[in-house]
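Q: My labmate handed me this sequence with no annotations at all. I'd like to see what the chain might look like in three dimensions before we decide whether it's worth expressing. Could you predict it?
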Amino acid sequence: MHTSIISFFKSFSFFKGCLKTIAVLVPLGLGYYFDLLDIGLPIALSIIAISPSDIPGNQRHLYGGLSIATILAMVSCALVNLTAPYEYLLLPAIFFLTFGNAYISLYGHRATMVAFAGLFEIASTLAHLQTGWNIVLYCGCILAGGIWYSALVYFFLNIKPRLYSEQLLGKCFALTAEFFSIRANLLIDKDRTEGLKKLINLQTKLNEMYEKLREAVLDSRSKSGKTDYLQRQFLMFIELVDIFELALANPVQYEKVDKELKHHKEYLEVYILFIRELSKELIQMSEYIGSRKKIRLGNSLKNLLERAKENNEALKTISNSETEKDGGLLLRNFYIYIESQYNSIENIRIIFENYYDNNAGVRDEKTFRRFVSNQNYSWRRLKDHISLKSTFFRHALRLSIVVTLGYLIGDIFPINNAYWIILTIFIIMRPGFGITQERSLSRVYGTMIGGLASFGVIYLLPYPNLYLYVSILCMPIAFGLIQENYMYASVFITISAIFIFALITPNVYLLIYDRLLDTTIGVGLSFLGNYFILPTWEHKTYNNAVRESVKANINYLKEIKIIFNSGEGITTTYKVSRKEAVLALSNLNTTFQRMLQEPKFMQNKNPAVYGIIVIQQSFLASAASFGIRLNRKKVTFPKDVFNTVMDSLIQSLEHSLDLLTKQTAFESVIDYKTPISKLNEATQTLMKPRMNNNISMRETQFYWEQFNYLFGLAKNLEQAIMSVGY
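A: Here is what I predict for the chain of 726 residues:
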């Protein structure tokens, strides 16, 4: 806990929180000093609205997002003010403004944050309605706020251009370390259910982090030039990705480990120790990034690698017998794996030792940019989603209805600061029931804790001069936590808001009551809206997520087949297909996790639902092992055998895909016996000494094992799909 708090205050998130606080306080301070709060306040509020769109990444997208957020805020403000005198116009204006702003979230996370500016300004304007030329003045204040905040971002990011990428890189190192720690524990755990769930969830999180970091590193290089420091950061990231992907490409068949090594666990121990030590070194590296200190690592990994090599020599004497041969082969494969990992971690170590020196190595990033996901911002996407089948369209429509109801409740009943109801709805309501429920609970708990804390401070320390300092101290923490932990952010947002209003409101206790009441009403409306108004249930979208994951694995297998036949090694197209398969798997797992947050009666309790994720994870990892071998080894395995078996495997996945799209009757079952029999027959022929002049038995054994394992997974996938009843 103590370490986490210190890490937060050192983080980029807290830095941005401080930046946003400065941006808000400057216009407020100047407005107060020159008695122009009617100008300073709307500028400050516009910054609160616009600042969430400040998402690091591509520079053009960053400042473009801030500009569009400013425009949306101005439009929302103008239309609400112009229609406010006419109730019959105001309600439609609120409805359509909410719909339009929410609908553009289909363009991705940045667009969602940009749209928040327009949504926030709807609520803010309802609290500070203007007439006549004051509308123009207020919109001018919003424009000034957007320009002021954009200039501040530009200034500070040029002072600290490396901070964000360093923070992300450190997080990636730490999460990768955790990934290896879990894998080490899985080798000795008796019950691996929870460990495998943690591993899949962590893999999903890592993929998201790598995606962010990939864009951040490349964008830093494009802005700052290819300096030696940035080149080293770039190289370090590439090596870290290689370590992670090598781990994914070397799946552990834990049941086989238990069976083959039950009498030789002492040989397995060194590999467990190696993985744990690798995890420790990655943690240490995560702490050193950005510290400008030379890293000091011991020789533990090298010593463990030598021990593993000695074990391999000792195993030659026991693996001659038929019963011990598979165990010996398993451990030799482990050795090849940790040797590759050792080489990658040593490369990172060398980079660390020369982190701030000159003459960095050179690595072309042209092909690397292909791995950055490009967002489609075409007008056609807006048109294509105008349908009740679209999650985004349904969410925009649902949000518009709920916000309109929230406004009517605040207008009809004697509720103070009723715009807090609308603001609460905007903040917590999301397309899915699960994530809305999660944010609702975070909002309620955070508001209650913040309200109680504020009550305690005001009751024990009734000094108005203190209120200003408390609110200022809480603001950077609130802004910094809003993307990290929403519940904690809600605590500090509530405290800051209450103490600011306490400066101008005589009855502070009534203010706390109003805050709690408005939040409760907003949460209740959001919850009921997601439940009853055009609900989007994850179990209905799970099928699509499974389909996309299977489709991605099919494309990945096709790329493996291409590089096997070409003999040219790993290509960029192959790596992109692997990345797409990993992202599809991550999306599948995310969909499943959201489904677990939905009401019990809406969940599909069939164990095969989660089993599909495990199968897809195992399938992807096993398929990736081909890529590692094809990149590092000269292939001698017969192409005709490989292609025949691979075609059958692709066909089996395409059959499962047909089941998912209901293009094939459930009674239609694919033949798995014939291709497996042909594989076994071909393998036995290849294993005969007279037929095996150019093909190593070890290589033959590898392909035989992997193909058998993949066919087994393909069959399990088909059965799982039929069991779920898609």
